[in-house]
């Protein structure tokens, strides 16, 4: 039996991966003009018109009117003029990559999240841009990190004869990736990019920016303000001509719904993956609980050391002692149904884990158990509902939310990823791998946050630069589950 081809997600670079036009290319062009003594500086309004021209060299060449050539003292010979433009462009690229490396060019919301989820889900990823390849690679690495950037194919610069709005670069990408157009989606930000994508037969999502918001995107399947993030900027849907039903941020499932091929559910499952996620058995639930407990015991020192940096250092000890008792009492828990089992575990956790961790984790298990009720197996939607109930309980008990530098910063995006993967028809092992990747990424992102809850919040800005122990614990738990899941569930 032949396996179905993987889906592909292809990004433009400028204005899509990062806010490159305003914070990168425009200042780089103007610095280049100053260094070469050219009598021009582009304002934001003037540059808004220049971005309609595909390619940096092409934008520079648009300066070469007879009046400008005379004023700048440039040679009249076209070949020597092309050489001048090439020299300007080389220097402009150097300035631009320096700006990207310095952090002056902010990545756009949702890019890192979507790339991580797509790679974890087995999608093929690429960037197709008219910018110079060195600039594209620098922007990509800054936006998604070096490890993820290495997994993304790049088609850029003069690799094709005709630049956007010609469809050449997207046709080349499809041919090189070996993915049929109905199973690919493009994220663009401009009309030129939209015409290039649709000209290659590709569905296109537009994320507008300051320079392109007023352009005509009538051929786009979906037009949004940005991809958005659960803990950051939210998505505004400006136009929707697809089957996608976006919420506060664009998900991988939304992007899949934009593809013409998404109407064929079997094609949604990439090669080397099993059937869509089945119902979860009582044994599966036991595997999850036992894994969480074992991770807490095994990582007592690691979690405690993380917590001690700006907290009181008791997180690792408290978690280990509480879940140690869960393991000790394992055989005695009432297993009348999943809900009863989880509630009994919650009682042990709440009574035995000290500090704030006991009430938080106990509430999570209690809410999950109440949602499961008398079930002895769970549909995928019930699994998500239980996780959402646990999150709601943690938020209420801890008076915290995403962005406060707590375990929620890893848990909420991981559950979002689980829901995305279920919607895409992924099996349990693939779903857990994707959730683990998201949890790890978002746990690492707590390093740049200021703690707003717990003892760490007393340190104020000194908490910036440290990892949240709870978020890291969630990531390690998901990673352990992803590693364990291919094994047969341990029966009670």
Summarize the entry for a quick read.
Helices cover 51% and strands 7% of the residues. With 492 residues, it is of the alpha/beta class. Helix 13 runs antiparallel to helix 14, helix 14 crosses helix 15 (338-352) and helix 17 packs antiparallel against helix 18.
Task: Give an account of the 3D structure.
- Mean pLDDT is 87; it is low at 1-5, 263-274 and 487-492.
- The strands form two sheets. A seven-stranded mixed beta sheet has the order 3-2-1-4-5-6-7, sandwiched between helices. Strands 8-9 form a two-stranded antiparallel ribbon.
- 51% of the residues lie in helices and 7% in strands.
- The relative contact order is 0.10.
- It starts with 7 loop residues before the first strand and ends in an 8-residue tail after the last helix.
- The protein has helices at residues 20-35, 44-50, 56-61, 66-72, 78-102, 111-120, 133-144, 146-149, 168-177, 191-199, 252-258, 282-298, 300-308, 315-328, 338-352, 357-372, 380-398, 408-423, 428-445, 469-484, and strands at residues 8-11, 124-129, 153-156, 184-188, 203-207, 222-224, 237-240, 280-281, 377-378.
- It is an alpha/beta fold and 492 residues long.
- The chain is built from 20 helices and nine strands.
